[in-house]
Amino acid sequence: MTTDNQPVSPSSPASPPLQQDHSLLAYYLGILQRRVWIIISLVIIGSTLGLIRSVRQPRIYMATTRVLVEKQGPNVMQFDQGGYEGRRWDSSYYETQTRLVGSRVVLEIALRHSRIRDLADRSSGKSRKSMIKELRRSLLALLGAAPVPLDEPWERLQEWITAQHVAETHFVDISAMNQDKESTVRLANHVAEAFETYHRQTREESLGDAFVKLEREKEKEELALLDAEQELQDFRESAQGVSLSTTGGKPQPAVERLNSLNRKLTEVQLQRIELESQIGVMETAMASEAMDDEVANRSLFAFPAISEDRTLTEAQQALAAAQEEYAMLAQTYGAAHPLLQAATSKATLLLEQFRTALQNLLQAERNRFAMLGNEERELRRQYAEQKASALELAKEDFQFTRLQNAVDRHRRLYDALVARMREVDVSAGLIQTNVRIVERASMPDEPVSPGLGRTVALSLMISLLLGVGLAFVFENLDDTVKTPEDLKERLTVPLLGFVPSILGEEEPGSETADDTQHSFVKELVANITTMVRDRLILMRPEWSNKPQEVPTDQQNAERHRRGMMVATEPASSVAEAYRGIRTSLFYSIPANTVRTLAVTSCRPQEGKTTTCSNLALSIAQTGKRVMLIDGDLHRPMLHRTLCIERRAGLTSILVGECSWRDAVERIEINKETEQFLDVITSGPASPNPSELLGSVQMREFVEEMQKDYDWVIIDTPPVLFVSDASVMSVLCDGVIVVVKSGTSTRTLLHRAREQLDSVSANILGSILNNVLVSRMGRHSSAYYNYGYSRYAKDYKSLYYASSDTEADEEPVVSAPVPPPVPVPEPAPAPVEEKPEPVVEEKAEPEAGEPEEADTNGAEDNGEADALSEPREYLVDAHPKSRYARQIRKALLLARAGHAERAEELIQSLLTLEPDDIPVREAVVRLKLDTGKAEEAEALAGELLAADPGNPYGLYVRGSMAIVRGEYDEAKDRLMESVTQRPQPESLNNLAWLLNETGRHEEAEPYASQAVEMDPSVYHAWDTLGLVLLKQGDVEGASEAFKKALKLEEGDICANLNMAEISVRQGRLRVARKLLRHLEPRQNEMLASERERFQALEIAAMKS
Do 831 and 764 share a structural domain? Predict the structure, then answer.
C-alpha cells in the first residue's frame, strides 16, 4: 500500500519535513548519554582492577650505566678512511649500538662473571616473556607438537637489559631491571663492561687482520713497481721522437707550430667573412633607387671603409653643397634660367664623380676579398700537414707519460703501505676503543614498576573504550522504539505526536540515584527477552492469549485517571500532548474526507484505549460531536477506563437486540464537553467477534454513525493478534497506530505495517505513547524545553491568558517590533506594525478552553523569558472575538522569535473558527512579521472580500501599493483605514505618503496623531521629523529625530537626518560621529540612503 491515497500532506503538522540537522556527532552523543551507566560501571570496574593489580605486582628496580660511544671506528688504512667516514655518520649508527648492547655476543661476555650467570639462572621463568613461552610449551606438549627449546642464559638476561641513545649526544644509557637492588646495579655495570670489552676485542682483531693484509699488499705492490720501471726503460730506448727535456710540462715544438697555424687561419677566416658581408651590403645599397634620388644617403657612410675614405667624404660634401645651392636657386629662378641650369650641371657632374669613387672603392674591397681567400686556402694546407706530424709525435709522448705515471703510482702506494705497517706495529700495544664508561650505575631508591598512576590511567582508558564499545553494541541490540524519531524512521508513517509517561518525570538533573543507576545487564536481558517474545508472537499469536485477570479497584481507579486526563487534568503535559495530537489530526486530514478512525496497536497494553478516550475528549472540547466505540470484543477495556456500565453495547446492536441510540452511554465530565461525546461499549461477550465486526450490520452501523457525528473513534484489538483490527480498518476512513515507547520492537512495527497494507488500510499516522522524556538521549533537552516533562505550569502562560490577570498587566516582549511590509525607496523607514492598546474585560473561559490558575511563576524556557520582559505595545484583538487572549499570545510569541509556534496556534484557531475576522487579521499580521509580504497581501484581499472595509486589510493593501509606487491607490486605502479605525502604523504610512507627494501641511496632523497614540513607535517620530524638515522647522525635526534615536539607537533614517542637520548647522564633529556609527551598517541601507550617507560623509570630511 502506497501513501498516495493517504490524505496527509507534506505541509501538514502531522508530517512535517525533518528540518532539524541531527548531525552524526549528535547521534553518537545521544547513544552515549542513554548508555552512560554502562560506561561508568566499566570504568569503575576497570580502574579498580588496575589499582589492585598495581598493588599486588612485585616491585621492579632499575639501574642505569652511561657509556660514551664516539662516532669513530678503527682507522687502520689511510686509503679506507674516506669510505669509513661516510658510514660512521650514518643515522642508524647509534641504533646499531643500542641493539648491540642486548646482542648475544655482548651478553655472553657478561655471563663470564659468576654472579651474572647465577642471576640469569635464578630469574628463569619469572619474567612475563618467560611465562608466555612456558605456556606455549605446555600447549604444544598437549597438542603433541615438537616442544619449543628452553631459553638460553643470554636470552633470559636479555629480558632485563635495555639500551637507549641520549638524543643530540654521544651517550648511550644501559639500563638493567630486577627485583633486587644490588643485582640490578651489578647487572647494569657488568653489561656495560662487556660492551666495552667487545669493542676492545674487535679493535685487536681488526689490527691483527690489518697488519697481515698490509704485508700481503706491500709484496704485491713491490713486484708491480719493478715491472713498471722496467717497461718505462724499454720504451725510452726504443722511442726516437720523444724529447725528454720537453716532457716536464712544456709542449712539443710541433704542437706549438700547429697552434700558431690554427690561430692565423681563424683570423683570416674572420676577416674574409666580415669583408664578404660588407661588400654584399654595399652592392645592395648602390643598386637601390634611393641612391639615385639622394646621393648623400647616410646609410652608405655607416660602413667603415666608406666613412674612412677621405676622397669619398670630400665628394659627398661638395655634392651636398651643390644640391643645396640648386635648391636655393630653384626657389628664385625658373627652370630655363642660366644660373639654375649651371647649378644642375654642377650637381650632376659631382654625382658622377661620387659614383665613380664609390665604384673604385668597391672594386678595391673585392680585390682584397680575393687575396684573403687565397691566403685562407694556403693556411688550410699547412695546418693539415702540421696536424698529421703532431699526431704522430703525440702518440709516443702519450705512451711515455702513461708509463711514467704508472711507475709513480706504484711507488707512492708502496711507500704508503710501508708507513701504515709501521703505524700498526706501533699501535698494537696501545689499544684504544671508541667506547668508555663515564658513569656507573648507582643504587636505586624507588621502584620503577609498577607505576600506580600509569597503570590506573591505562586501565581507565581501556575500560572507557570498552564501555563506549559496549554502549554501541547494546544500542544495536536494543530493537525497541523509544523516541518519536525512531518511530518515524521505522514505521515510515506520519507521526501525529507523542504522549509523555503519565507517571510523570522530574526536571532534568533531578533524578535520584535509584532511578538512574539501573543495571545495564538487566536492560540487555530485557531487550533480548522482548525480541525473542515478539518473534514467538509472530509465529504463534495465540500464545499471548492468557486468561484475563480481574483488576483491583485501585487498578481501575488508575485506569480511569489516565483515560480522563484531558478533562480532569487539562494543564498537564499529557493533556497538552493529546491536544497537540488533535491539532495534528485536524491538519493531516482534508476537510470532510475522514469521519471514522480505527485506533489499533501491535500488541496489548500499549495504551490504545487510553489514547482513544483522551483523543475523543480533546476533540469533543472543540465542539465537535464525537462517538467513541469499544471495538475490542476480545478484551474490552473502554468501560473500565470511563467507569461506565457494560450493558447493551456494540454486540447488542449488531445482533439486533437494541438500537444504537439505546446503547449510547454518557460520561460525567462537564456540561460543555459531555454533550458532544457519546460512548458505546463492547456489550456482552460474543463467541464470534470477527464475524460480527465483518458483517453487513457493522458496515451499516458505521455509515449511520457518520451521518450523526462529526468524528467516530473505534478502539480495536491489536492488529497482530486477531483479524478484527484489519476488518475494522477497511470499514473506517483511517487508522491510527499506537506504539508504546520502550516496549514495541521494530520487527512488530514492520509486521503491523505489512498487515495493514495488505488490506489497503489508510494509515493516517502513529502515536508514540508512554515516552520517558528524560531518557530520550539527544532529544530529551528539546522536549523538556517544549514542556512535556511538566504539569500545571506547562502551557498556561504561553497559550492561555490567566483569568486572574488584567489585560494591561500582561507581559510582552521588549524587542523592536519588525515591520509588516517593506517600503519603497526613498522611504524613510520600513512600515512598522505597532499594535493598539488592549482594552479587554476579563472573560469566562469558552467551551474547550479550561479554567486556569494564576501564572505568576517564572518559566524556564525562552518563550516565558521573552514574555516576562517590559511592556511595549500590545496587539488589539477584536473585542467580539472569543479567542482574544489566544490571538494576543500568538502575536507575542511571534515577537519573541517563536513564529512557528505562533503560526501553529493561530492555524488551530482558524481551523476551529474559519470565519473569525480577528483570527484572520492575526494570520495576516503573522505573515507580515515573518517577512511574507506577498502572502500577507493575498490574505488581506481575502479578508476584505469577507469583511469589506476592514481597516487592517485596507492598511495592508495600501502599504503594498506604496511599495509598487501606486500612490493614489495607497492614499485612498490608507485614508479609508484611518477613517474607520486609526492605528499608529496606518497613520504613519499615510503621513509619509502625503509628505512624499508634497502635501506637508496635510501630513503633519496624521504624523502627530501617530506619535500621540503610541509614542514608542520610532518610525512615527521619523515621519514627523521628515514632515517638519520639509516645512522648514529644523528645531522641531531635530527634536523628533532625537526621540526616535532615544527609542532605537540604530535607526538609520534618524541618524542620517540628524547628520544632515548637523552639517547644515556647522556641527561637523557631531555629524562625523553619527556617520561613523552608521558606517558598519551600509549594507542594511536602501540605495538612496547609501548615496545620501556617502554625500554627507564627503561634506563632513571636506569641511
Answer: no
